[in-house]
Amino acid sequence: MALAAFYFGRGRSLAVVGGPSHGSVLHSLPGYYGYYVAIWCALPALALLFVWMILEPRIVVAMVISELPESYRSLSAGELDLLVNNIRNLATGDVVSVEVDQALQDAAILLNGYGERSRQLLAVLSLGLAGLGGTLGWRRIRPELRARNRVENVIRWMLIAASSIAILTTIGIVLSVLLEAIRFFQKVPLTEFLFGLNWSPQTAIRADQVGSSGSFGAVPLFTGTLLITAIAMFVAVPVGLMTAIYLAEYSSARIRGIAKPLLEVLAGIPTVVYGFFAALTVAPWIRNAGESVGLTVASESALAAGLVMGIMIIPLVSSLADDAINAVPTAMRDGALALGSTRSETMTKVILPAALPGIVGGILLAVSRAIGETMIVVMAAGLAANLTANPFAAVTTVTVQIVTLLVGDQEFDSAKTLAAFALGLMLFVVTLCLNVIGLSVVRKYREQYD
Amino acid sequence: MSAERSTLEKVEAGLARRRRKELLFKLTGMFATAIGVVFLGVFFATLIAKGSSSFQQTFLKLDIELSAAALAPDGELDLRYADFDALVRSALRAQLPEVSSREERRALNRLVSVGASYQLRELLAADPGLVGTTQTLWVPASSNVDMLIKGDINEQDDEALRPLSDQQIAWVRSLDEAGRVDLRFNSALFSNGDSREPELAGIKGAVMGSFYMLLVTITLSFPIGVAAAIYLEEFAPKNRWSDLIEVNINNLAAVPSIVFGLLGLAVFINWMGLPRSAALVGGLVLTLLTLPVIIIASRAAIKAVPPSIREAALGLGASRMQVVFHHVMPLAMPGMLTGAIIGMSRALGESAPLLMIGMVAFIVDVPGGFTDPATALPVQIYLWADSPERAFAERTSAAIIVLLGFLLLMNLAAVIMRKRMERKW
Questions:
Q1: Do A163 and B273 touch (CB under 8 A)?
Q2: Touching check for A42 and chain B: CB below 8 Å?
């Protein structure tokens, strides 16, 4: 339809001035008049379509509910939701979980009827609006119409909309996580969450069961996360840094040409694959090695997850360190070498101190990555929330708990699921701080030597 | 003079130590580099060692008598209710006539996969005329037999700890001697959806789910990402708003992916009411996830277009919009596409946010659309890796090999594109 509008508009603009030979009388190129009409045609219709799609289900459901007998309408909101679901299933012919009586049967038929009517109405309305918009645009075509400017304005607004999606995403993350977290903190006090030492989120279904309250002290999760992150950084920072130094200072171009892409491959492997490797290869290996020297190692030890995570982060650390080292002016390096220091002395005494802020910024980014890493720990670390600093014991992390709390079917209002959002909020805030600091340090430092 | 000599002496005295340090430093660097590379080697070696066997699957050759009496007792063939299992069992028993007791029969029946009866059903659905004939078919063996043939079950182990008893192993061996056991290409791996039975489980459902998701992701994130990059690079006034957007995008690229999953759960599923586990929702979440990657890459590509081209076009009277869409964008396209491919390969490997929006369900059917319940290839890997059945471990490796194969192809495409369209200004 918009396509047709384009051709009509283009044709009209030429017709108004009397044929292609007089095209120069027009303010803009004929094509722009075509786009102009097409926009008039498509935009309002699409907007209507969008609004309709969002509002339609709610209105239809509300209408169906208002037709239900009194006994159903007096139900609580949750039960009503359930009922509506059943009616919907009935309408599509799926399995229904309650006894079907006449009222429900009627409601289902009604629902189908409303849905059908709504679709017809939508089709008529949107096509009508498109036609109306198209004609309106078509009639407005004059030689002096500044079609190009108007079309460009619309495009400009579209570009702005596209770029603000990034902002909207951030706002969406903050709002969705924050709102649910606030609901969680209404049920569980903030102090208990932040300072409690006991994490067992199983809330019982009946109030009289043992341990029905559930406890939400998140400290064991934080320490577990920190433990695994520390192990990972213990691997990644020295290895990544030395790799960057070796590749930047010592290796021949040929070795660099081979090693760098290989390390990039390491960065491109999906985390779930690392998780599989950690759980099925590294963890048993560490346990056997531990047993042979008489250590008891949990089969889901923090060490296995941390080691593999460290290897995953090596490329990140080494590439950021490489950037920082390369940003140090060559004059400083040459000066140190000319004074007779060896390469290692140049590196440790001149270049590294100069590159330190950039490296630290990079390490902060790596830490944030390690804290937010999910699949490796879900697959290789445990579920038990132990408060321990022993790398051979099983610990759990914030991300693992988010996954275990939210995977599977739960009602959305229990403290258990809301706890996942509270943890998500913590995760988001902490990683955001690390990222902001890390990124600004890295950037500032880069500019300093430019 | 004497002071100078003493400096020289001092330097020479320390020289050996310093050289040692230098060597040590260099060796440490070499070692560090080697760690990454060696890990990669070990990693691929284990993967291939574990996974390559699962591209083959053990099949048993059985002469199955499709007797009309057993299949259609009422004279009418009803594929839904016909007892194919019985046919398969009796065919198996015909091979080992010495099996008699109930216990033994049950043990024998466990050698063949339930897939055998599905195979029969499909055969008869395609050609109902086969009723009454005897067909020689290769039917899938159970996963335990498969592991025995591939050597993953140690016969020296305690019988109670093995999935197969001594007797079952003896049966398999005698079938093997009769030439009725063979390793063949495991087509089920590529043509089936998920299954509880390892020998029937395939990755097609997961691959299709991933495909639909990536389709949603690329159609949304590429235009939006490019548009955002164009605006930020070419039109945005340098003020606090554009600074904010810039900082924001850089930060979004570093937000843990699981947080995007929380966003998807709260916004797309709870607030907008989109169906759980659907490829559409997964695609939307991955769109938000890849958007920063694409925007950053596209901006770099636009920046690389020299200003002289813009100035020339402006000088000839083009509007700024025309400059961008007619000149800058075509020149920046290779860089943008490379960024898009890199974003897509990140989206393909991502699984944490998909767990949040319910794509971990056990789904047997191959999804046929955007709103069907689906799972994704990395999530399938996660599910299989968690499965207690040992036979799933090798299938997990196979799925990983397939996933890495896809990623390799995508990255190769990106590299080739970069090489081909590379342009020196």
A1: no
A2: no
